[in-house]
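My main concern about presentation is that the manuscript never shows what a single data entry looks like. An entry of this sort, consisting of the sequence and the corresponding backbone structure tokens, reads as follows:
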Amino acid sequence: MVMPPPETPALAALSHGGLDHQIVVTPPARSAEESAELQGVAVEQLLKTMVVRRGEDDYVFVLVPGPRQIDWAKLRKHLGVSRLSMPPRDEAVAATGYEPGTITPLGSTNAWPVIMDESAAHTGTVTIGGGERGVNVHADALELLRFLDGESADVTKLSP
């Protein structure tokens, strides 16, 4: 029996149209590799959403492909700032409306700027969180970027 996806702010934001997408619900995964396997995609297609603090009440969403991590020097240079940090859990929840592990720019309580690492921008279909563990949204990377009014930039590096 196929269960309907839960109602989340992310899926509500998508219900207004404007992005051709597919919702894929899986059991919660313990790793990017497991999530990719459950969704039937390559780990490079997974976009982890990181919320980064660049100032008081000023954040940015960084969409990081599965096997990559933020390159802090590149991101600081791109944003033209000398300091960035990852907010503590409570601050991240207040800034996005989502618990860590479920953060997504889709349906966030604040429309912070979105940066997708350029390594993902031309990969075709990508998958991004749907606002709850195991809820995933599959869409074309460039269409997702347009839908989020985001930009593409070289801001990551391969994880060691």
